């Protein structure tokens, strides 16, 4: 097998990582060990599990300096951003610890025996239980928060599952140092060595999705890769859930009233959101609808000014930069798309320019629509001018679904209700007067949406309810109290919220 | 297209139904109309939706005489059973009305803006919203409770979705009369005509799964049919959830202590559960593990006696009866499987005998295991003799997952904990000292399990939480109160349970 190479996208330097791509035998062994670990983990208490999550956070913090320096070497994202991302990553583990201690995620329900209109019904109790070994694919654009120690890993462990991670090739050493921090903490809590495991290489990733012990997969990455792995997961003898958080061209609408009220701030804000993290966020606003006429012209002028002053984007890899350059070139070849501004080029090995283009609704809905509706990672802003609400709504209705839908509007804006209605149908998260590029870890977060945003619109990959992906319900009928899980015993020894005879009890 | 034929499985008489198989154009028109209906339904209040469900129940009750007579003509299940099934079907609609009024199924969550450890987070609110048009496949074995007016239809309407139903060919006129009752009630509530629609024919069913407007499918039926449709659903340009409740060979274990304590009652009870509804329940215990030695012999003797006195099974159709006869013949050709008893044959066109066979763990785990592990609809009981806990557990571990797992044991039975542990991993519902053939409609019911029991182990097709299959989460960030759905407004005008800043509030 080939040795995995660690590349510095700023300097272009390449170093052997010391890791080799995992063999198929290694994947099979990982699956088997993970199944044994999952059985052990499923037997631990909620409080033990919450303590484990806290310990994982503390262990990552203890290695913060090494982790941040290594991630900066491999991604060029900078110490400030990576410090914030590590803080988020640790917060995420601790947040899931509170979710686990709360216990509501079990959806525990107790129905006592009663004479129903259907005749006598027996005592029946239900809760969600861990699925088993979970396959996780690290993403390139968040080397901490959506990679080895990221949300999929944290939520799967919080659900009581074991995890086998396929490292992203763009940051093998970051994967290694974060994995080591996780494993050290897991061992210190008495967890089996196979609680978290790490694999390298494309073939290993495919084998992981097909491994008979793996019960579900979490993936964050591109549409083509995610779709191909989704199909592998569905073609198994026993298909398993594949939660792919894929690409998204996120619509953003500036209403005429908003354009009139605050063109300068909006133009700057749009470009700020588009260029954040060098435009390598899946929540980046991809299509920015701006009204025609003088109010919209002012937004365009402010955006042009902001993009002209952008310092350029240092991207995660030369390959991503090359795809960005290709995407921009293809876009500019579409009749009806005009260049408005190009920024400086970040002077790095993976450096790119920021680009602002403008087009109209007819072009967006025309024969080249697939070019405009393909996600393009990088600091690219596509402004779409629209003439009135009817044209805007028709255009939005024809778009693919997305992760987010953003509305920049005024109080009592007449465009509000109809746009909210499109947004809720087309996206997982609807934002008013904010930008979509921040994805907080919280109880109410929804990160996902209908395809192509995600392979399943029924779940989220961020926030408290992301645990639901790794759980399945089990009912216990007339099971004696001493044989029931603690969470379902009559006296509720864990003190968790439950439905009792249909009524929620705290 | 061919005319659909209505067959009486008792007399063998065949009548034209007056229905023709739906054309592909009709399916496409149904999908389009369903999308418009779904948009309308999503805009109605929870109280309107609950009233609709109550009205559907009342309408079915008003037509009870016609419905029961028609269903008896087409299924031969008898007036008593069908009266009970209609009662259950109506109860199910009313039960979902209480679930809708409760509002907890929305999983509404409100996070106010706050300064998190990650920096300031905006106001964020989340709830589950209806997916859109749902395709439903009626099952043959419950012509009411799992067919046109069954659980999939009721739960999808409760979730706020529209429904397009593919009628089961075994009861076209029952499908018609129940559909008419549903449609009359829907119209009386002001719902669009396309709230519930009915299609006929195999090709229409396939087209329904592939229709671009359909957002998810509920199916109850055989493994081969369900698996084929699942693959169609996953091969769409936009794959959709396919909830197939498929076949199941449900294990049941009699412990040595239980056999010793109550051999006679257990032997009779086993046969009663196996022959209930002519053995045409997906929860029928398929493999009955009975200890070797004198205690187990006594259970076998009692079961033999009970099966010998069984009056025979009149099955749902001649085709199902023929498959049963083939299954029994194939089973009896397996070396190591011995016939214990055959009952009388029900003297109907679709009549069959009840059959009791015995085998051992070695045969079950041997080269013919697939024959023993294939679900066989009908009054067939396979007793598997086991010698001790080790052999029993090894055998159970090697079985396919199932809908149910039943344990007949004594208080403090030493077999209990290990068997409970296998059961919860292998099945959706674990039963102690009861029989699995009753599936109550309740908050805590779980009807499903890992493949081959169901195509998704994450959900249930019966009970309150079956709504979750037809819902997807949407988050609203910084959305002004007047633009929010009522369920998420600050003052909680619907009075539903919500999580507010992470804490459950009733």
Descriptive labels:
Aldehyde Dehydrogenase, Chain A, domain 2, Aldehyde Dehydrogenase, Chain A, domain 1, 22 strands, 2 domains, alpha/beta, eight-stranded mixed sheet, 506 residues, homodimer
Describe this structure in words.
- The structure is a homodimer of 506-residue chains.
- Chain A is built from 15 helices and 22 strands.
- Chain A is of the alpha/beta class and 506 residues long.
- Chain A has 2 domains: 22-112 and 123-246 and 456-471, Aldehyde Dehydrogenase, Chain A, domain 1 (3-Layer(aba) Sandwich); 250-432, Aldehyde Dehydrogenase, Chain A, domain 2, CATH 3.40.309.10.
- In chain A, strands 12, 13, 14, 15, 16, 17, 18 and 19 form an 8-stranded mixed sheet that branches.
- In chain A, helix 1 crosses helix 7 (202-210), helix 2 (46-62) packs across helix 6 and helix 3 packs antiparallel against helix 6 (172-188).
- The longest helix of chain A is centred in the N-terminal third of the chain and has 24 residues, at 79-102.
- The mean pLDDT of chain A is 96.
- The interface between A and B is large, with 79 and 79 residues.
